[in-house]
Amino acid sequence: MCGRNVQSAPLLQLAYMLQNPDRRGSTRYCSTNNSMGSGMKTITRFLTSAAFLSCSSLALADITANIGWASDYFYRGTLQAPTSASAGVDFERNGFYIGTWAADVKDGLEVDGYFGYATEIQDISYSVGFTGYYYTGDFDDTYQEINLGLGYGYVALDVAIGEYDNFGGGTQDYTYYALTVANKGFYGKFAGFSQDFEGEYLEFGYGTTVAELDIGISAIFANSDLVGDSDESLVFTIGKSFELK
């Protein structure tokens, strides 16, 4: 989905980026019409305006790019593609961010766009954003979601509320939730879905930097509600970020 959900707790950012090589495709969930609900539209318009204003002075923004490779591209507990290369670019200024990320899903590309705002008040981090997941082939259909994040110390809670276009078969609503605990590169996550999708998974991993390369390993345990059969997977990732400005 690599919409940006990295903004939860600062200590979690490296672990998140290693397992979610910036800007991911989602695990397909899902409303009963082809347009976003009024509440989501209102939030999206607000975030779009804020992101536009913040990026209107790009001369003052931090601009970074990233490339990565995963032995298996997993997102939110579900396999997207066996081995996948990815790349993205991000702009950030005064807590506002906007970016894009793309990954090879074998049947074309997944291309994500995201924007939002993140801040920290008295050691508690907050974030709100929007992510859209789009595809150049027939691998999947469009997902659009609002992302909410709350973090304190080693703990972060992330929630995504979205809609899935479902190839014209009637859109579906979904809510994704994840509780993550991270310390010194190690992390554990319990996450799942509600509404038109269901299922849960556990994820444990470790990330570090070696010779300016981000290296990660994770184990994912998904239940049968999520993947159709209980499944365990081991994933290796490698990536590198670049300061462009």
Relevant terms:
245 residues, mainly beta, 12-stranded antiparallel barrel, 3 helices, 12% helix, globular, disordered N terminus
Commentary on this structure:
With 245 residues, the chain is mostly beta strands. 12% of the residues lie in helices and 58% in strands. The chain has helices at 13-19, 38-55, 224-227, and strands at 62-75, 78-93, 96-104, 109-121, 124-135, 143-152, 155-164, 172-183, 186-195, 199-210, 213-222, 231-243. The longest helix is centred in the first third of the chain and has 18 residues, at 38-55. The protein is globular. Mean pLDDT is 82; it is low at 1-39.
Task: List how many beta strands DSSP finds.
Answer: 12
Instruction: Give a short account of the largest sheet.
Output: 12 strands, antiparallel, barrel
| Rg from Cα | 17 Å
Helix content: 10-25%
Order of helices and strands: HHEEEEEEEEEEEHE
> How many alpha or pi helices?
3
Average per-residue pLDDT, rounded, comes to 82
- Beta-strand fraction estimate: over 45%
Overall shape: it is globular
Please give the order of strands in the largest beta sheet.
1-2-3-4-5-6-7-8-9-10-11-12
End-to-end separation: 25 Å
Strand pairing plus helix content: what structural class?
A: mainly beta
* Poorly predicted parts: 1-39
